[in-house]
Amino acid sequence: MHLVEKYCGIVKLLHNLLQNVHHACQPMPGEEQEDIVMTSTQNNLLNTKCPLTGKPVTELQNPIRCMDCKHIYEKEPVIHYISTKKPHPRCPVAGCPNILQVGWVVCDALLTIEIDEMRLASATNINSTMVEDFYRS
């Protein structure tokens, strides 16, 4: 039994040495407990500017989204566009085949949240750029 205990002690010692040499502060394979954290740097908005006014989506006063094609517009200009381009006003985004209808352009529940996230991401990028520029000078 004494020999088996020595062998186990040597194996544990080698295990610890390998752990410290190759994976300092990291669990050995098979011992890890994984937490998966998913983040997104993607923006969920289909267009970042109103195709009618050219304003960035983050600056729109009354943003609305077409429920068919998901493009985002300023409310008043798109309502005017729909009313003047009868009988079948096409989405003004190049290549989009959808027909716009007043009842199908709305401010859905997620739109304001997505725009706020885009504003926050823009502010974060501006602040990190300012820090980078500060250190470069």
Automatic annotation (TrEMBL):
GO terms for cellular component: nucleus; Smc5-Smc6 complex. Residues 32-120 form the SP-RING-type domain. The keyword Transferase applies. Coiled coil: none annotated. Pathway: Protein modification; protein sumoylation. One of its GO terms (molecular function) is zinc ion binding. One of its GO terms (biological process) is double-strand break repair via homologous recombination. Keywords: Metal-binding, Nucleus, Transferase, Ubl conjugation pathway, Zinc, Zinc-finger. Gene3D superfamilies: Zinc/RING finger domain, C3HC4 (zinc finger). The keyword Chaperone does not apply. It comes from the Eukaryota. Belongs to the NSE2 family. This is SP-RING-type domain-containing protein.
